[in-house]
Amino acid sequence: xxxxxxxxxxxxxxxxxxxxxxxxxxxxxxxxxxxxxxxxxxxxxxxxxxxxxxxxxxxxxxxxxxxxxxxxxxxxxxxxxxxxxxxxxxxxxxxxxxxxxxxxxxxxxxxxxxxxxxxxxxxxxxx
Length: 127
What we know:
Elements (H helix, E strand, L loop, with lengths): L4 H9 L17 H14 L9 H11 L5 H6 L5 H11 L4 H24 L8
Helix pairs in contact: 3-5
């Protein structure tokens, strides 16, 4: 899976000492180890209300915001476009940038209607 340039900078700055993550007693992590460490990190960051599966919704939202199509979004995790549509329906955040974008589109549409109405004397200023 490709990563962004910003994430690559972060990854490249890390030490690469092990190919696997090990527990304190030298055994490989399993899902329980991961769950516990994830929860500790989330609580330490002050984001207790977030869960690991929330990353799916965050990813969809972040990719949809700049205009990625469902097919483009699906290419990242290897999903079907229909899965992306369901994810966006269930998880897409109502962000300020999304609502600002919607408002800007409405205002641009209204301005176009006003320009058409003012250019056509038969409409007498009606949109």
